[in-house]
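Worked Example 4.2. Consider the chain below.
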Amino acid sequence: MWPEVYKWLQQRRLYVFLWGSLLLLTVTILMVQGEHFVDRAEEIQVKVLTQTMVKSAASIRQKWELENRPEYSSINGINYGFTQYGWPIIRSEKGIDCSQTWNLLSSRNSELEYLNFERKSTVTSYPYDSCFYQISHGKWVALFYENETIRINGFLTHYEK
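Applying the procedure from the previous section yields the following structure tokens:
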């Protein structure tokens, strides 16, 4: 009887060891792949955000054309002007109002937030400033005006001050 009990216990231990190893392997794979999924989700978020901002700017420009090119307009209480070619721009005493530009061009369905933003003058965006929005750690979106035309660039991995 003892050899049978011993054999049963050995089989039971082997069974528990195999299932435990399988569970540990599964958790390890999920943790490694989870980081990949988070990075991929952030990339998709930035891509969708830049597409939304471009579409919003294009629809405001189309509205500018349809309304016979007014100097100023307003959407949801946000007053804005236009560049020479009809792209929306919100100016303040310091240059471009980056936070109001974000509110104007980001999704109107839900409030999107950024971690931080920087305003910077660049040679290519003269006479306007450029706005750099930090979406997450290491992910930036740049909004700038080049030759009176708005440009939005996503997937920036660094920002040089």
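The chain has two helices and nine strands. The two ends are 79 Å apart (CA to CA). Compare this with Example 4.1 before moving on.
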